[in-house]
Amino acid sequence: MPYEIKKVFASLPQVERGVSKIIGGDPKGNNFLYTNGKCVILRNIDNPALADIYTEHAHQVVVAKYAPSGFYIASGDVSGKLRIWDTTQKEHLLKYEYQPFAGKIKDIAWTEDSKRIAVVGEGRSEFGAVFLWDSGSSVGEIMGHNKVINSVDIKQTRPYRLVTGSDDNCAAFFEGPPFKFKFTIGDHSRFVNCVRFSPDGNRFATASADGQIHIYDGKTGENVCALGGSKAHDGGIYAISWSPDSTHLLSASGDKTSKIWDVNVNSVVTTFTMGSNVLDQQLGCLWQKDHLLSISLSGYINYLDKNNPSKPLRVIKGHSKSIQCLTVHKNGGKSYIYSGSHDGHINPPILEVRLFLNRPPHYWDSETGENDSFTGKGHTNQVSRMTVDESGQLVSCSMDDTVRYTNLTLRDYSGQGVVKLDVQPKCVAVGPGGYTVVVCIGQIVLLKDQKKCFSIDSPGYEPEVVAVHPSGDMVAVGATDGNVRLYSILGSSLKDEGKLLEAKGPVTDLAYSHDGAFLAVCDASKVVTVFSVADGYAENSVFYGHHAKIVCLAWSPDNEHFASGGMDMMVYVWTLSDPETRVKIQDAHRLHHVSSLAWLDEHTLVTTSHDASVKEWTISY
């Protein structure tokens, strides 16, 4: 095959303040899974850099859970669709799809034989259903609540029991199958956020926004005790997870702590203090084998250290919102990827290291998954475009009306290196000699040595994208009118060369080849046009293939190939000398169009998208 996926840097969980986030565990103990947007993300628990993304839901997915057999996953979305799909094949083939009720699915539970499924959430007339996995036939009734049901669990040993927790401040206890309502448990004074049976089935726990955790007998539903007496946490508790041996319980709370409880003696064993920022609130947790995971409101996944509660063993960082742009840079023999996201932050992950733009920006070592953060305060709005200049600084422009120069050795967002612009920038390009050209709404700005030195106001057209020739003497500006205009850099000014290059539609991106011999221009009319610089920018060749607007392109270091990404979710790798020879990557980021791409080397292409993930591809010709 001319291409194969090399690495996937997955997005973080999508989180919301005051709402618990469910992390699903793998019965075999190898993976964990969570949701972001329309995606279900599966990650290796020992090496989270190994990831897989399931993207078949048409609506935002809320929860996903492995079947106890480990062969299937059930995932539920905001429309009430439940999809049951295969985990063993790469394609994740759909086995069954059901609509238990119309409304958001909030939690899912399987019986230990993987044959029955309970689903709860925000239905219009009913808040839950329990049915056979292969036919959808009902095996009981979920009743006893008058508000949204947040959580459900089924005892993993016979005789089966089922418990639910709801916004009506109550839990409900069921016996079955067929599951029948037995009684309501009214020990909590606020929303019940999470209910979980111990793996051995002897007990179950309920956790609530009132800061309490109650333990009950798994078979009879009798109250055994309240952990920590009147209060287990100082804030609402969003999630609980039992230890594999059923003796301890991990809890995650809005008071910015997670705790391990010894249930037999009703005492706290360990308190993990996660920080003092509101983003350190704990919304989810998972105890799998020896791993203890928690999810912060920042979206970060924390691997908790029982031996050192004040500092996690590792923190998985990344993007949780759509990524707009990326660039690559080699430094000290290592290849870095920098990506800029919708929330205005810059992250780093690497081939050895890669860097991504998000929260405080941070970088990842892609081999080990190790990461660290940029320091300081970055952009305050969406990062539109970025590139790296000759002095090794990351140059980024954002909807906050600034261009920033960030030192990639220090990885520090300092107050220096910020250029405030009069209008919002759309695109930035750099050339030798300290030049930066910024295309803004109705304006073109030339910067030299991080200072504004020239601007073209009201150029008579709407500039969209910009590229600087590698020699630094020529600037190409692409516009919405379907033309590319050329400007020469003369000292501290731009001179219009009076030359129009015609694309086939509104220009969406353009780039010079690394040797400066060609200029590639892509447009909204699904065409890439390549101009030959040496022949006075004569049209060299035209490339057709995309089925929708092309949004980005990038030249390979070999100057013979270039890649384009479009709204049709396709990535094409084109051969300059033969427009008919191409590598077609279909559904590169399924259900999301490719927003940016770049080359790490002649055979490694990096793509990113609104699914908040970054992918590395190996291309062979």
UniProtKB/TrEMBL annotation:
SMART domains: WD40 (SM00320)
Family of this protein: Belongs to the WD repeat AIP1 family.
Compartments where found: Cytoplasm, Cytoskeleton
Key words, A-Z: Actin-binding, Cytoplasm, Cytoskeleton, Repeat, WD repeat
Transmembrane segments: none
Source organism of this protein record: Myotis myotis
PROSITE patterns per the UniProt record, alphabetical: WD_REPEATS_1 (PS00678), WD_REPEATS_2 (PS50082), WD_REPEATS_REGION (PS50294)
Protein name (database record): WD repeat-containing protein 1
